[in-house]
Amino acid sequence: MEQQNQTLAEFIAALPEEERIVLTLHFLRQNSIADIAAKIGVPERAVSAVLASGRARLSSAFNFPLGS
Predict the structure, then answer these.
(1) How do residues 11-28 score in pLDDT, each as one tens digit?
(2) Distance CA 44, CA 22 (A)
(3) What angle separates helix 44-62 from helix 33-40, to the nearest 10 degrees?
(4) Predicted structure pTM score
(5) From CA 25, how far away is CA 17, in angstroms rounded?
(6) pLDDT grade, residue 29 (50/70/90)?
(7) From CA 6, how far away is CA 14, in angstroms rounded?
(8) Nearest to residue 58, comparing CAs of 9, 1, 17?
(9) How confident is the model at residue 53 (pLDDT cuts 50, 70, 90)?
(10) Domain 2-62 has what CATH class?
């Protein structure tokens, strides 16, 4: 399956823009949900939902366990 050969960088680059921004700010820049919400002008619950979706995609694509 081709998706298994995809790198994490390629995976992130292929995400929708909002999801890519939120995941990058949270996981790579270590911004809090509140900080991300303020930076991009959305409610914290929207950021939380995007993070949950991103975690699920990562877990599915790379067989990462979903953490708490």
Answers:
(1) 889 999 999 999 999 989
(2) 11
(3) 110
(4) 0.80
(5) 12
(6) very high
(7) 10
(8) 9
(9) very high
(10) mainly alpha
